[in-house]
Amino acid sequence: VMFIFVCVSRKLLEYECISLYLTDRRKNEPPLDNGWIPWLGHAMEFKKDAAKFLARMKEKHGDIFTVRVAGLRVTVLLDPNSFDNVLNDRDSFDYINIRNLVTQKVFSLQLGSIEPTSERMAQHFQGHSLSSLSSCMKTHLQNLLLHCHNGSTPSEWKQDGLFDLCYSLLFKAGYLTLFEKDNAEAVYKEFRKFDNLLTKLARGSLSREESKIASCSRERLWELLSPHQLRGGSESRTWQQRYCDILQQEGIDADMQKKALLLQLWTTQCNAGPTAFWLLGFLLTHPEAMEAVKSEIRGLSTLRDTSFQHPQINPLEAHSTPVFDSVLSETLRLTAAVMIRREVVQHKILHMVNGQKYHLRQGDIVCMFPFLSPQMDPKIHQEPQSFKYDRFLNEDMRVKDTFYKNGKRLKYYTMPWGAGNNSCIGKAFAVTTLKQFVFLALTHLDLELYDPKAKLPPVNPSRYGFGMLQPEGDLQVRYRQKRAA
Ligand code: HEM
């Protein structure tokens, strides 16, 4: 009897072990999906197209699940109403270790345990500083857009890829505004090389040849950005110099300060150009949206002509532009894909807004991917794949900000600017910049698709998780300066 008992117990134990190996899921944990490849789990699929992979997992498991990715357990949370339970709990969820891993890999930068500098830098994008940055930006945009004809006359048609055109103009104007150095062209060229390899660099999947190119490019950029090449005296502190001051106070040495400038270049310049591309691309391929924006602009110029009391006020800042704002929100909903990650630093019970509770293990990663939910979630936005320029407009032409998931009103119904420690401090500046750029382009240029039947190029799937998406290929346009009326 004893023997049978031992055998049965052993069998039971083996069965337990096998099922534990296969599922390794403990009580009250989110559904676990290990994938078929031991240790690697779903790493390959995740790398290739994170949006497609996570959408498949969402379909299978719902709004919370754990996947194995290269030895790590990653819990993916796709219920925006529960995001704050992670974002606001800084005792259980750490941000700094994960940030350091990425900055080390991509920028060869060690920031140690310093807290994010965003709160201290945010003041440079507010109030008076914001106005002067915006007016400086406008001047640079105007100069670049209207006074650069590459040898041709302004009224001659020119052909270009819209992505290259937008990225180069916004990058150069942004660089001149924030870095105040006159090597914008060289920095832009080198930056695009680096940016093209950045996702592979972050994932450690560069070939030997690419790895060489990325390292050279990074070195060259450090040199081009380095402060000893700065113009001007020490009394006029640029935004970039102020950033270095903060790092200095934190005890970061000169070498790391130099490297940190590339991180700053990337965070401040990698999003606006691609956004301008998608925005103009959507307008050019959706004539009713283009007409609505142009009609709003015509309204503004009438206002400007008749506003004798405040002729100095920029009509863009003085008047609301609900149509443009909705077009921008809709563009960002479809093309902004930040990934917000935290490390679980102590055992945690995560409360979901629907009352369910899940155990999270210490050492696991929690990942929110707002692109899938809220942004592309059919429970929140009808026909999420299509561009509807008035999705964020109410009938009275005011901003629409009431959206629901499972009957509960959402705080986060689109999250292009991130949240918590991962939020954009340049948001107001970016919005003004994009408005300036689009309005300048539409009022001063004749801009049209080179092939009237052309469609927007597809998204480059390797960029999910890295901020603004970029296209695979480009959209050819032709443009010329409008003749003065
Ligand atoms: C449409 C354009 C933009 C979008 C969608 C965007 C989005 C974001 C997001 C999602 C983050 C958080 C990234 C993360 O921590 O993972 C971020 C950070 C940041 N953004 Fe933006 N951004 C845009 C334009 C700009 C511009 C034009 C500037 C400034 C010139 C800027 C300045 C910054 C800075 C400094 C941070 C880092 C804050 C920190 O230190 O933690 N952004 N942005």
Tell me briefly what this model is.
The chain is 49% helix and 13% strand.
- Quickly give the structural class: alpha+beta
Low-confidence stretches: 1-21, 306-313
The CATH architecture can be given as: Orthogonal Bundle
- Biggest sheet strand order reads 1-2-3-10-7-4
Membrane topology: Single-pass membrane protein
Subcellular location: Endoplasmic reticulum membrane
InterPro entries: Cyt_P450 (IPR001128), Cyt_P450_CYP7A1-type (IPR024204), Cyt_P450_E_grp-IV (IPR002403), Cyt_P450_sf (IPR036396)
GO biological process, one term: prostaglandin biosynthetic process
Plain-language structure description:
The chain has helices at 2-23, 43-48, 50-61, 83-87, 96-107, 118-122, 127-146, 162-178, 184-203, 208-225, 239-249, 254-269, 272-285, 287-306, 315-318, 322-335, 371-375, 427-444; strands spanning 32-33, 64-69, 72-77, 93-94, 158-161, 336-338, 340-344, 348-351, 357-360, 365-368, 404-405, 408-409, 418-419, 422-423, 445-449, 466-468, 476-481. A hairpin with a 2-residue loop joins strand 2 and strand 3 (72-77). With 485 residues, it is α+β, with helices and mostly antiparallel strands. The chain has a single domain (118-481), classed as Orthogonal Bundle (Cytochrome p450), CATH 1.10.630. A six-stranded mixed sheet has the order 1-2-3-10-7-4. Strands 5-17-15 form a three-stranded antiparallel sheet. The chain has a two-stranded antiparallel sheet with strand order 6-16. The radius of gyration is 25 Å and the shape is globular. Residues 1-21 and 306-313 have low confidence and may be disordered. The protein is built from 18 helices and 17 strands. Bound molecules: protoporphyrin IX containing FE (HEM). Protoporphyrin IX containing FE binds at residues 116-118, 121, 174, 178, 267-268, 271-272, 275, 336, 338, 416-418, 422-426, 429-430, 433, 467-468. Protoporphyrin IX containing FE (HEM) is lined by residues 116-118, 121, 174, 178, 267-268, 271-272, 275, 336, 338, 416-418, 422-426, 429-430, 433, 467-468. It comes from Amphilophus citrinellus (Midas cichlid). GO terms for molecular function: heme binding; hydroperoxy icosatetraenoate dehydratase activity; iron ion binding; monooxygenase activity; oxidoreductase activity, acting on paired donors, with incorporation or reduction of molecular oxygen; prostaglandin-I synthase activity. Its EC number is 4.2.1.152, 5.3.99.4.
